[in-house]
Automatic annotation (TrEMBL), chain A:
Name this protein carries in UniProt: Phosphonate ABC transporter ATP-binding protein
Species for this entry: Alishewanella longhuensis
Top-level taxon of origin: Bacteria
Entry annotated with the keyword Iron: no
Domain ABC transporter: 5-234
Keyword terms of this UniProt record: ATP-binding, Nucleotide-binding, Transport
One function term, GO molecular function aspect: ATP binding
Family matches, as Pfam families: ABC_tran (PF00005)
Record's keyword annotation contains ATP-binding: yes
PROSITE patterns: ABC_TRANSPORTER_1, ABC_TRANSPORTER_2
TrEMBL record, chain B:
Listed transmembrane segments: 20-45, 310-331, 367-388, 400-422
Protein's name according to its UniProt entry: ABC macrolide family export system permease 2
Membrane topology (UniProt): Multi-pass membrane protein
Pfam families per record: FtsX (PF02687), MacB_PCD (PF12704)
Compartment annotation: Cell membrane
Domain ABC3 transporter permease C-terminal: start-end pairs: 313-426
Broad class of the protein's primary localization: membrane
Signal peptide bounds: none
Species assigned in the record: Alishewanella longhuensis
Coiled-coil stretches: none
Keyword terms of this UniProt record: Cell membrane, Membrane, Transmembrane, Transmembrane helix
Amino acid sequence: MIHITQLNKVFRTELIETQALHNINLSVAEGEFVALTGPSGSGKSTLLNILGTLESYDSGDYQLDGQSVTGMTDSALSALRNEKIGFIFQSFNLIKDFSIYDNIELPLRYRGFSAAERKQRVEQALERVGLAGRRSYLPGQLSGGQQQRVAIARALAGSPRILLADEPTGNLDSLMARQVMELLEQLNREGCTILMVTHDPEQARRAGRHVQIVDGMLSDATVYQPLVAQAVNQ
Amino acid sequence: MRNFSYYLRLSLHNIKRAPLPYALTLVILSIGLGVFFSNATLYYWMNRDPLPEQSHTLFFPRINAVEQACDSCLTPLRVLSYKDVQKLSNSAIPSAQAGMFQSGGYARLPNTQNGPTPVSIRVTQRDFFELFNAPFLHGQTWADNDARMELILHYNAALKFFGRTDVLGQQLLLDGELYTIVGVLDNWQMLPKLYDVNNGLAITPVEEIYLPWETAYNLGIKSNSTTQSRDSRNYNENFAVNGREGEFYQAQFWVKLDTPAQQDAYRQFMDNLVASEKEAGRHPRPNGNLLHNMLDIAEAFNERNRQLDAFAVVSVLFLLVCLFNASHLSLNRYMASQFEFSLRRALGASRLQLQGQLLTDVLVNGVLAFVLALLFAVLMLLLINQLLPATSALNNWQPGLILLMFGVALLASYLVTLYPAWRASYSPLNQQLKA
């Protein structure tokens, strides 16, 4: 599903250069649930942004669903994001004065779906996250956990090939965080590929695979070691 | 179309989000456009071609025929004498020609107790109406250029005196003389009135009554605008003789020269005329013949309205200031929406799709600014008409002018939206979406 090789990213200012990512190699297979952890400033959000094509990289190659992203035009990248990637952000990133329905429908608007298909997809996504009765609510009328479920519904509505989640429970209390994690796990069981950035070791353990990044480099010790196997060893 | 209706809803939604900053932006833009529109309206009327179908064939000949010698006097007077008109009328080259001047008088219906009413008069010859495409509603022009007690009325004058237009054969008293009406013009106007640009008359309405040239000389009727006498005759006495024989300059003279060959031939005719006059011991001044096309006449007589030109420059500068300020306010609005731009981009909107949204914003802003600017423009025109009463005939809008103003409003809206929207849509996506 995802295949990146020798990927480098440098942030430059007038005074300094910072190597944010250094020779990253990572593959994520279809149906995997991968947790990406690391200390603050280690480069995990940068990596996630690059995987989501929200940010460019300096060298290396990135293939998503068999398609190389390198050198793609802006409109091709937009279409790629729209069709193949579902984003779940830490701060939900819902438009406050749009209804839940309108928020979920937003990416479908840019896909060229008919009104009937958009409606069907939004209804299905709302059913999936358990918010079918809240379609006309505004985000501010929902709890944080519910808002994140709306964000997940928005990510799911376009039937993406992969969900990229950036600390999806970072702004939630433990109860809501657990509910959101359960929802992600359920989606993964249904076949959804997920790559999640998290600080929380507990949540990382619940993912199918745990990848750690430190100082812009993936840690060899944890790469490609499914947590299920780790648990058996322990 | 489906996208357009969505973009339209978003534009209106964005307005509702921050109505006050939006209203402020719109008002600033509309004031700038309103001032610009009002001035553009005046400028359009002042500088338009009033007879596009034949203005290129209409010419005003001037000869330097003043009878006092003056070697340094190279430029002819801007008005002609009766004799000048007579001499120039001898050419058969023009397909139409007419001498003329403006006058005024008091008219009333005979056999009524109503008091006389002031009227504007154009003293002219039979070809006047052909020269300037003045259409007849009833009757026709005079049979020839001889003196006759016959009038032609403008549509408005017919309604003013008779309450109707079909008044052929009716009589009217003008300054105590009884005339028979032989023609009624349709509701005709010519703006700018380029056949008489003396004393800034180019923007006044056309005259109400048309009086035969020879009749006016017989009755001692003179111009009420520019007149010059260059000899010692008493022009208040026996004008029928003095006005015709003396050096009394008051007339315009227009000829219709349909082809360049005719124009060249007419120039040659003027040169020959001056040469023969000199041979006869007249025309002591240098040959200063001029043949002005109608569209050049205001410039040639230095009768362009410089105040309007100055207003035009000021209004353009004012519009630029308003655009700058509106753009600044617009930038604040769009920067506040930067998160939403980034989110839409992250969720798959291409820059082209965002441009579609921005162009819809431009359209909505343009339409609203246009409507509001028209209101401001009406107010500005009223103010300008008060300050410059001569401009009162120039304050209406034709469809072409309105379309042009709408185009300017859209362009202004685009300029105000362009930079802010560009800034907002090109910001790094990841920065806006990070918690």
